[in-house]
From TrEMBL:
<dbReference type="GO" id="GO:0004139">
    <property type="term" value="F:deoxyribose-phosphate aldolase activity"/>
</dbReference>
<comment type="pathway">
    <text>Carbohydrate degradation; 2-deoxy-D-ribose 1-phosphate degradation; D-glyceraldehyde 3-phosphate and acetaldehyde from 2-deoxy-alpha-D-ribose 1-phosphate: step 2/2.</text>
</comment>
<dbReference type="InterPro" id="IPR013785">
    <property type="entry name" value="Aldolase_TIM"/>
</dbReference>
<dbReference type="InterPro" id="IPR011343">
    <property type="entry name" value="DeoC"/>
</dbReference>
<protein>
    <recommendedName>
        <fullName>Deoxyribose-phosphate aldolase</fullName>
        <ecNumber>4.1.2.4</ecNumber>
    </recommendedName>
</protein>
<dbReference type="Pfam" id="PF01791">
    <property type="entry name" value="DeoC"/>
</dbReference>
<comment type="similarity">
    <text>Belongs to the DeoC/FbaB aldolase family. DeoC type 2 subfamily.</text>
</comment>
<keyword id="KW-0456">Lyase</keyword>
<dbReference type="InterPro" id="IPR002915">
    <property type="entry name" value="DeoC/FbaB/LacD_aldolase"/>
</dbReference>
<keyword id="KW-0704">Schiff base</keyword>
Amino acid sequence: MTATASNLDLYAEVTRSEASLRRFLHGLPGVDQVGADARAAGLGTRSIKTSAKVYALDLAIRMVDLTTLEGQDTPGKVRALASKAMRPDPADPSCPQVAAVCVYPDMVATAKETLDSSGVHVAAVATAFPSGRAALDIKLADTRDAVEAGADEIDMVIDRGAFLSGRYQQVFDEIVAVKQACARSNGESAHLKVIFETGELQTYDNVRRASWLAMMAGADFIKTSTGKVQPAATLPVTLIMLEAVRDFREQTGTMIGVKPAGGIRTAKDAIKYLVMVNEIAGPDWLDPDWFRFGASTLLNELLMQRTKMTTGRYSGPDYFTLD
């Protein structure tokens, strides 16, 4: 589906003023919380065939953003993580690599150098991660530093205080400005993931509003959480975001990615998310370009399950490197 002139005009009109943006966001259909919870729970009970499980495990590995976001991060730790991203299971060269390595901006150059031309992307958190509480010029400088260091993707956080107090235009304008800061001098641009911190948004209606606001502002991905606040990713919240990207594509022809992050720890959980992606958004989103897992502890569990499926033997958690 291609975007129509009327759709583009609609969104241009919506974002011209705080009042029109507010009317649009509050005019979105309300979320039936009980219905969303029930639908997510129902999808979570689906089973898949053994052959499909093998494919799903490899796909989930390819969708992982392997992450280290700690004050104790060192160049050595980042290099080790980047090496694991390229060869998650050194004993099995058929094991796919992950989608990206996500680090703080000052570690981008180290990750980029290690990953080289492997195809694994470098993502950097920016804009005063994880709080999002800083002046705009600081957020933009943070973003530009990461992009100049070679980041392929920027994970920004919205100002939840501004959003929850109804200052939607401020949040919209910041996303637009960060998107512009993702541009490189050669005309290319780092992809922008916008993090909502859904655990702080309080209602499913707010999750839907934040999804539409970010997409209209130019997000390439919408992401649930920083992983620093609980609850983080949940199936119902991800369902609402998948509905939003599906509906946005139907209306504009533009496809936006989704990234649940935090709290996804088992292969069974990952497969539940993949089933939901297929059922809610559609098979086009079953690709690392359009769906990611922000869950580093998930990778070893996927590797253990993959080894069991391919060899018949279940390896212990200490068989793979700990992140």
